[in-house]
Amino acid sequence: MKQARIAIDRYAVLSEIDPRVYGSFIEHLGRAVYEGIYQPGHPTADEEGFRGDTLELVKELNVPVVRYPGGNFVSGYRWEDGVGPRDQRPRRLEYAWKVTETNEVGLNEFVSWCKKAGTEPMMAVNLGTRGMEEAKDLLEYCNHPSGSAMSDLRRSHGYAEPHNIKLWCLGNEMDGPWQMGHKTAYEYGRLANETGRIMKTYDKNLEMVVCGSSTFTMPTFGEWEREVLMQSYDIADYISLHMYWNNRANDTSSFLAESVNLDKFISSVVSICDYVQTIKRGKKKINLSFDEWNVWYHSKGAQFEPWSEHPHQLEDVYNFEDALLVGSALITLLRHADRVKIACMAQLVNVIAPIMTSDTGAWRQTIFYPFLHASTMGRGKVLNTTVLSPTYACRFTDSAPYLDSVVVEDEENETLTIFAVNKSLDEPMELVCDLRQYADYAVTRHIVLEHDDMKAVNTEENPNTVIPHEGGESQNDAGDFRAVLNPHSWNVIRLKKQ
Ligand code: AHR
User: Fold this and answer.
1) For the domain 2-9+384-497, what is the CATH code?
2) What is the CATH number that goes with domain 19-377?
3) Side-chain half-sphere of 467: how many Cα atoms within 13 Å?
4) pTM, rounded to two decimals
5) How far is CA 22 from CA 179, 264, 292, in A?
6) Is 225 in the pocket of ligand 1 (CB under 6 A)?
7) Ligand 1 atom nearest to 176, measured from its CA
8) Which of 118, 261, 284, 417 is packed most tightly, with the most Cβ within 10 A?
9) What is the DSSP letter of 73?
10) 250-276: per-residue pLDDT in tens?
């Protein structure tokens, strides 16, 4: 049996975890909004038309922040179309996804849904086809109490209290040639800076996310971040990162090793942030908002009727191996908790999402589970552990670790949680850890997500094909911690002070 070791010191703390690392994303895209969170007439819909079954699953995931309304969608969006009396809202052709947007749901409804879901909005402004003026109006509409044109407009729409939205994305993927209003790094950096400056003049406590690269392999990656931050350092609090993975090559070992690339991506962006801070002689550290990440490929090439209303788009059906990579991605994000303060799984419902709905039900995809475990049990602080793991060679590296792992301590509840993925496709692994500093902690749970078939999926008819079970093998014998991680498995080992 392979053996891996975690070297741990309870006083070596990497960082408190910002709960917003368990964020998500809802875009006006496909059936995310319509039929996902909103479906008047559905048996579980409330008086505002929000689906109760979706809300229950969102609450279960305990998502602290949800990015909205896009995505590529935001780069052509007029936010004014989505407010005011519904029967006067225009139907618009939506060019990012080639559909018709009815505007039945807009920002007020979204904020209302957020309250019901127990989450906060992370609002994106259109810096593609629009600019500072519209962002300024949107902020005033959302956050000013009353006595100005935009705040009074909101009040006239039935929302007397301001929404007080704190977290703002200045555009989306502006480095991408596919993006409406795509810009050079200099053009975008200047625009982001001027827009952010206006918004922070209104309220210096607002937090701004500027656009980083759409993915690690963009030809402009690196130089884009440097230039954007050089232009916008004064107003930027976070820079965004986006990354999606696929197993089109059907090479599962390489697919599961993608966390290595994720790790490199994060470290590279951290270096650039620190470089710009140095050049600027700045006090402020720029942190990271990994506001789109997931597996995305199963649905690519799916056909739909152009300019139709909320067609089935990007409806990836996730399999078991996708859940393993999602687990590894969560571990990697947490291992950078000192700089990754916000992260949004893309997306939340129906569109590349952990939750799927039909007219007759809502169910949990395979990737729901690692997210659920991390979001509900990965709270507290990340310990600065060293993971010593045997490695394997794959398509893009000679040394992918078999084990991805992170240790989280929740001092208040006196728990220690080890998240671990064994990527070996055929062998179990012994995990060893010197836990003498936690000798009085005992294993209370060892949850395992595993399946013989890497391609197994959950569907509406068979929603429980891939589900976690308790009873993994692990023990802490006066500080001599040992666990067995089954081949290709996601593990959550919880220890509690006795
Ligand atoms: O999440 C789907 C799309 O992926 C988003 O709209 C865009 O920002 C990214 O390219």
Assistant:
1) 2.60.40.1180
2) 3.20.20.80
3) 10
4) 0.98
5) 26, 20, 11
6) no
7) 10
8) 417
9) G
10) 999 999 999 999 999 999 999 999 999
